[in-house]
Amino acid sequence: GAWGVQEGGMDGIDGMDGMDVAKQNHAVDKWRATLQRVAPCCVVLKVTSTRSFDTESAGSSFATGFVVDRKKGIILTNRHVVKSGPVTAEAVFLNREELPVYPLYRDPVHDFGFVRFDPKKLRFLDVDEVPLAPEAASVGIEIRVVGNDSGEKISILAGTLARLDRDAPHYSSRGFNDFNTFYLQAASGTKGGSSGSPVIDIQGRAIGLNAGSRTKSASAFFLPLDRVVRALDLCRSAFVESEDGIQWQ
To answer: Which of 136, 156, 205, 214 places its Cα 20 to 30 Å from the Cα of 38?
Structure first.
């Protein structure tokens, strides 16, 4: 009788192990499908500031952006990428197509902005768009940061969302700093070049915008998307459809 109970207990444990493995495999497959869908939406942004302006100095930099409206060609990135002054910029897509992009909106306070490309000129890549879901951010969920980390064309960094109420990061005593908002935080280890990367959940929704990190730790800081959603809706409403296509009013 005792041996029978032991056998049953072992079978139960083996069954649970099998269920756990199946769940893990399902999660891996779902993440793989999600990342295959999201990666083509992400672009490398090559930005050149033609002159010093406001808090930004002249120079060239690489960053990340991602498509949030494929029909209108709108890409979301950081304000410190779009810059506050005159810039020339190009977007490099996953298939290495390069298109010029133009600043569409720079938020006056928070670290986000939009640039735009002409969708009709993207010839060899069927690009999708990443939906924005600020309400999906919650402590403990698994995330992926997809972008141009440390100069690599495409990097995927994993993490777990740890905080929703981190103070806005302080970057410089002379340059731009965000304020009057909380930030999300996770130990994803992002570095230079990943500014503007989407922070996605397993469903492929952007729940935050990668903005900065600590150089001496793995902590990374993400801008919540509530204000971004409102600004995107206002930008969309400024476009009109005509015989020549979609145009900015």
So the answer is: 214
Active site residues: 80, 111, 194
Tens digit of each residue's pLDDT, the chain (249 residues): 444 444 444 455 455 577 777 777 888 999 999 999 999 999 999 999 988 888 788 889 999 999 999 999 999 999 999 998 899 999 999 999 999 999 999 999 999 999 999 999 999 999 999 999 999 999 999 999 998 876 677 889 999 999 999 888 877 767 788 888 999 999 887 876 789 999 999 999 999 999 977 666 778 999 999 999 999 999 999 887 765 666 655
